[in-house]
């Protein structure tokens, strides 16, 4: 049974999301919190399959909540915001969100986004392998979806993990931006590569790949993992 966590200070929105789940996935267990600090504690206690997180909370910002969640969990997170400024969206993605929706929104659209992030988190691009070493510092367990850098386990979000595996699977080959976006975000061809750039930046930082030696960018074309 799926478990979804909602961190939102407006009870009417929590209730509407709950009804939407009951319509589409009636067996889903819904847990909720109306403040940021309660939300972080809720995620620690309940270990949900997906989190719906409002950016505008009464105590601490949703960005801070997301940052705290990412310290101990790679659970898929969809942020809700009334702000349409690119800066807020990019800040959420840089902090570790998997997707975003701007209020007001269609609840069926929200469920569609949830389905997509869950599907991405469950896919295993490579299976049946044991722990594989890539170079002298990077190890990936393609079965348990774990990654080590210099023998230290690192926490990747589902999108970061899928992006890394896609690049490693095609190492020494430049993968076009559009192909990466279609495979990782399941979106049709687009010239908007900002989300991809942000995810690459986060991934490089977690892999200690600054300046880049593993994940290289062929400007105007795509990215390559250099073996």
Overview of the structural elements:
The chain is globular. Strands 2-1-3-4-5 form a five-stranded parallel sheet, sandwiched between helices. Strands 6-7-8-9 form a four-stranded antiparallel sheet, with no helix packed on it. The chain has 227 residues and is of the alpha/beta class. It has helices at residues 11-24, 36-46, 62-70, 86-95, 107-122, 158-169, 177-184, 194-206; strands at residues 3-7, 29-33, 50-54, 77-81, 99-102, 131-134, 138-141, 146-149, 152-154, 175-176, 215-218, 222-225. The termini are far apart. The protein folds into two domains: 3-122, 3-Layer(aba) Sandwich (Rossmann fold), CATH 3.40.50; 131-225, Orthogonal Bundle (Arc Repressor Mutant, subunit A), CATH 1.10.10.
Brief sketch in words of this structure:
Helix content is 41%, strand content 22%.
Main β-sheet, spatial strand arrangement? 2-1-3-4-5
CATH superfamily of the largest domain: Response regulator
What is the CA-atom radius of gyration, in angstroms? Answer: 18 Å
* Total helical segments: 8
Per CATH, which architecture of the largest domain? 3-Layer(aba) Sandwich
Shape: globular
Question: What's the end-to-end separation, in Å?
Answer: 40 Å
Strand count: 12
What letter string, H or E per element, gives the SSE order?
EHEHEHEHEHEEEEHEHHEE
Largest sheet: 5 strands, parallel
* Weakly predicted, low-confidence segments: 123-129
Helical content stands at: 40-55%
| Protein structure class | alpha/beta
Q: What percentage of amino acids are in beta strands?
A: 15-25%
